[in-house]
Design brief:
The chain has 272 residues and is an alpha/beta fold. It is built from twelve helices and seven strands. It has helices at residues 2-13, 27-36, 39-47, 49-55, 120-131, 137-140, 168-176, 193-206, 218-221, 226-229, 234-248, 261-270; strands at residues 72-78, 83-84, 91-93, 96-102, 108-114, 156-159, 180-183. The strands form two sheets. It has a five-stranded mixed β-sheet with strand order 5-4-1-6-7, sandwiched between helices. A two-stranded antiparallel ribbon has the order 2-3. The longest helix is centred in the last third of the chain and has 15 residues, at 234-248. The radius of gyration is 26 Å and the shape is elongated.
Length: 272
């Protein structure tokens, strides 16, 4: 900043009389003037408005919901764990998990995990999982103690802007069931902050402590060979995932709603 001010004053003084030359402020004076500015204004100048909005968004909140199924958010996330095939025992890679989360109750409505890239098919299967009752739970995963009773037709589905969410098939499916689609604003992460936080908790609590984890970033991974240490079977992962959702996450007090997700869902659906 000091060098830039020096350059500008030097350029301006070339066209001024010697008696009207501008003085070059000291570096200390410049620092003192910058310190008088608001931190937000300084961050906007240095890093841009988006960075400043993320750092100083104390009063910025997402839409407020008042009932279950009023606003259901959907998003993709790559799993932070490499899984092994049940038959060949070879590493399969990291599946992409598409999840639907009810914003008011913070209850996961459904999910789909696949090894293909995010697609319209994954979105449709996740939507189907969110709408239909989870009657398969006791039969396929007897170790799950509680029931997953979160299902139903959402009034509004909030999604991001990748092509699979703009597909004609997805739009027609939502039209047929009477569900509106709302696309989140670009570069506004807090608009879908609740599902972003859920996916982060999902990966951190469920996968980062297991062998074969890829962690969230390369600094945490260091020289750990995730493929070499992968031992979790795909079938085991599906059972663990259901158990974590139904018996752990939905039964744990949530600070965001000051309640237990399954209790809030039960109180909402009971009154309907």
């Amino acid at each position: 900043v000091h060098l830039e001010i020096l350059r500008r004053i030097t350029d301006a003084n070339q066209f001024r009389l010697k008696s009207d030359q501008r003085m070059v402020p000291s570096r200390r004076s410049i620092y003192r003037e910058i310190a008088r500015l608001s931190p937000c204004e300084v961050m906007v100048a240095r890093y841009g408005k988006r960075r400043a909005d993320m750092a100083f968004r104390v009063s910025v909140t997402g839409p407020v919901t008042t009932r279950a199924l009023e606003r259901v958010m959907m998003d993709h996330t790559p799993s932070d764990l490499i899984f092994v095939d049940d038959n060949s025992m070879l590493p399969l890679g990291r599946p992409t998990i598409t999840t639907a989360l009810d914003e008011y109750t913070r209850c996961p409505m459904g999910f789909y995990a696949g090894f293909e890239p995010p697609s319209c098919l994954a979105v449709m299967r996740c939507l189907k999982s969110a709408i239909l009752p989870k009657t398969y739970l006791s039969h396929l995963f007897p170790s799950v103690k509680n029931r997953w009773e979160c299902y139903g037709l959402p009034e509004l589905v909030v999604v991001d802007n990748p092509p699979e969410f703009h597909s004609r098939h997805f739009e027609l499916a939502c039209l047929q069931i009477g569900c509106d689609i709302q696309y989140a604003k670009v570069l506004v992460p807090w608009y879908k902050g609740k599902i972003e936080r859920f996916l982060k908790t999902w990966n951190h609590d469920l996968m980062h402590g297991s062998p074969g984890t890829t962690f969230s970033n390369i600094l945490e991974r260091d020289d750990y060979d995730a493929g070499k240490h992968a031992v979790v079977l795909l079938s085991t992962f599906r059972e663990i995932l259901h158990k974590w959702i139904v018996d752990v996450y939905m039964q744990t007090p949530h600070r965001g709603i000051q309640d237990i997700p399954v209790h809030r869902w039960g109180s909402e659906t009971t009154g309907l």
